């Protein structure tokens, strides 16, 4: 497990030092992944992947800047935010859960099938911007994210906590459906939800008004605070390699 995966799962910006075990070759003897916290900062630094922090920091800023530039008042308030919440909870989470869920074969075959799906299917999925934003905010609350993921069940009632792990490549990625990853994801989305646009999202309507979240994480409360944070990062230095490299050293 490396620090890029920790950022992907929700470590960045929240003072959380979290490890996700039972995945990607770590403690495979466990039936289900568990979460523990690093004991010291040195334990993280010694993982020798600090150089990847710059790449992830830039990707995070690109996501936040795109959110800040979204029309109709942005994605951080009002009906547009509520529609993004609906799309994330009711469409995206079930979609990726279905991709990662095990089949009905024997236990060993289930594990092999699930791993293959994660590597070739689930891990390649890239959401639209509004969904990517809410996915990011959800992972910024790792305990609540884990609790919510535990509530999602795949076929045979198997918990999808491990399956809903996010790769570093997915952590801050988003697509309008025109690039390679986005095309595949959009095709899967449209097959599952023929009446729901992948991108751009429809204007808030009756489905938005009727929506009520069942997640433990209050993503709306987090979203309204994001613009203040984003506007702190609008200076050019936050996208410049020398500045970010010094920040890693600090």
Main attributes of the structure:
globular; two-stranded antiparallel sheet; 12 helices; single chain; disordered N terminus; mainly alpha; about 250 residues
Please specify the SSE layout and strand pairing.
Blueprint (H helix, E strand, L loop, with lengths): L2 H7 L8 E4 L12 E4 L3 H5 L6 H17 L9 H23 L6 H14 L8 H11 L2 H10 L28 H13 L13 H5 L8 H5 L2 H6 L9 H9 L1
Antiparallel strand pairs: 1-2
Helix pairs in contact: 3-6, 4-6
Structure characterization notes:
- The two termini are 23 Å apart.
- With 250 residues, the chain is mainly alpha-helical.
- The N terminus is likely disordered.
- Helix 3 packs across helix 6.
- The protein contains 12 helices and 2 strands.
Radius of gyration: 18 Å
**So how many helices?**
12
Structural class: mainly alpha
- Strand content range: under 5%
Q: What strand order characterises the main sheet?
A: 1-2
Poorly predicted runs of 5 or more residues: 1-38, 102-107
Summarize this structure briefly.
By secondary structure, this protein is mostly helical. It contains 12 helices and 2 strands. The protein has a two-stranded antiparallel ribbon.
């Amino acid at each position: 497990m490396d620090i890029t995966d920790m950022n992907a799962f929700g470590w960045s910006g929240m003072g959380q030092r979290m490890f996700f075990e039972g995945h990607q070759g770590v403690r495979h003897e466990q039936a289900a992944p568990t979460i523990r916290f690093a004991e010291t900062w040195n334990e993280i630094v010694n993982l020798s992947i600090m150089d990847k922090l710059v790449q992830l920091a830039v990707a995070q800023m690109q996501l936040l800047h795109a959110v800040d530039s979204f029309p109709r008042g942005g994605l951080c308030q009002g009906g547009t935010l509520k529609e993004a919440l609906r799309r994330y909870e009711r469409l995206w989470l079930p979609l990726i859960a279905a991709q990662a869920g095990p089949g009905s074969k024997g236990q060993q075959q289930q594990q092999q099938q699930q791993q293959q799906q994660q590597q070739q299917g689930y891990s390649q999925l890239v959401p639209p911007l509004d969904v990517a934003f809410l996915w990011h905010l959800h992972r910024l609350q790792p305990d609540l994210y884990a609790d919510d993921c535990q509530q999602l069940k795949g076929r045979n009632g198997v918990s999808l906590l491990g399956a809903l792990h996010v790769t570093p490549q997915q952590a801050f990625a988003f697509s309008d459906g025109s690039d390679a990853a986005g095309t595949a994801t959009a095709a899967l989305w449209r097959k599952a939800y023929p009446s729901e646009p992948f991108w751009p999202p429809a204007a808030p309507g009756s489905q938005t008004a009727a929506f009520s979240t069942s997640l433990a994480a209050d993503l709306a409360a987090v979203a309204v605070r994001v613009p203040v944070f984003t506007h702190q990062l609008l200076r050019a230095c936050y996208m410049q390699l020398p500045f970010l490299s010094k920040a890693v050293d600090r």
